[in-house]
Design brief:
The chain is of the alpha/beta class and about 200 residues long. The chain has helices at about 5, 60-70, 75-80, 100-115, 130-140, 155, 180, 185-200; strands at about 15-20, 35-45, 85-95, 125-130, 160-165, 165-170. The chain has 8 helices and 6 strands, in the order αββααβαβααββαα. A 6-stranded mixed β-sheet has the order 1-3-2-4-6-5, with helices on both faces.
């Protein structure tokens, strides 16, 4: 199955993103094998840096390092997929500025909801950063559910036991992109959260 075939945007209504950078995973994946879904912020401004781009894309390098920090040494993002880890973004287009409008997160969360539904055996969700957390909460709100992740700073929330639709949810910090190498103080916490999700998924 290729998620990109079932998760498409109609009309590209959002005004604060680079629509030409729209990315949904286009490689084959067996949906029944996915145990963990990692949701980061937005597609990179350059599609060559997306998770499954050829060569050594930035998102792949920082994510592989994050998993190495957590004790899972893998060489490629495809290796992570083979271990039952699916990587995606809450916003499918690249950012044009530092932040992303709430309306854009809400709009794109509809695509994320379709994407998550492709993987019925998911046991753990890693929400990497505020945008990913907001997107999950948007999905829950539309369904009349309580917030997936409570309000508050990630530092205080990440130690709580959170569940949603039968999955454990792990709010954490953004691991995709240059900030991962700059903000070294957060790398330890990212590694702890990834390790906890791996344990929860069995």
């Amino acid at each position: 199955m290729r998620p990109s075939k079932g998760v498409t945007c109609s009309g590209f209504p959002c005004l604060d993103v680079k629509q030409e950078c729209f990315v949904v995973l286009g490689v084959d994946v067996k949906p029944e094998t996915v145990k963990i879904v990692l949701v980061s912020e937005a597609a990179p401004p350059d599609v060559a840096d997306s998770y499954y781009a050829g060569g050594t894309p930035l998102f792949a390098r920082t994510t592989l390092q994050a998993f190495a920090d957590a004790g899972t040494a893998v060489e490629t993002v495809r290796d992570l997929l083979d271990l039952g880890l699916y990587l995606t973004t809450a916003v499918k287009c690249g950012k044009t500025g530092y932040g992303i409008a709430a309306a854009t997160v809400d709009q794109c969360s509809r695509l994320l909801e379709k994407e998550l539904a492709l993987f019925p055996n998911t046991r753990a969700l890693l929400a990497m950063g505020d945008v990913a957390i907001k997107a999950l909460n948007c999905i829950a709100k539309r369904s009349g559910e309580a917030r997936v992740v409570p309000a508050g700073s990630t530092y205080r929330i990440r130690g709580q036991i959170l569940s949603w639709r039968g999955m454990r949810v792990f709010p954490s910090y953004l691991q995709a992109g240059p900030s991962f190498f700059i903000e070294k103080s957060k790398r330890r916490m990212i590694a702890e959260d990834i390790a906890a999700a791996l344990r929860a998924a069995g």
